[in-house]
Amino acid sequence: MPKKTKYRKDHKRSRGGLATRMNKVDFGAYGLKATTACWVTARQIESARRVMTKYTKKGGKIWIRIFPDKPVTAHGGELPMGKGKGAVDYYVAIVKPGTVMFEMDGVAEEIARKAMIAAGHKLPLKVTFVMRDNQ
Asked: What's the Cα-to-Cα distance from 90 to each of 48, 73, 93, 105, 121, rounded to whole Å?
């Protein structure tokens, strides 16, 4: 969740197109790249981070390249239609195909690959393991 936002509620925005930024491994040696588009919630990002930390046994370094800055609103379950826009329910990060979401360095390639694949199972989109050399 962002510390401060200009507006409390946000429009839906389009999910189309490929990623034109954050599409290369910039910080670490290994990365987890999205191959489909999706909204990734803050809980899903945290879950993936925990899995990667567990696999690396707190060694190495992990970079999280996405941030959940888009508020998603929702009404209660049994409310009638109308009555305006609902309250902010949770926050998401908009991920487009080609976005490198996580990066890792300081561990062996096979450990990084296992950790990233396990983290990918926690996310609602298809991902692929990439290295700095072959993107």
From this structure: 17, 7, 11, 30, 21
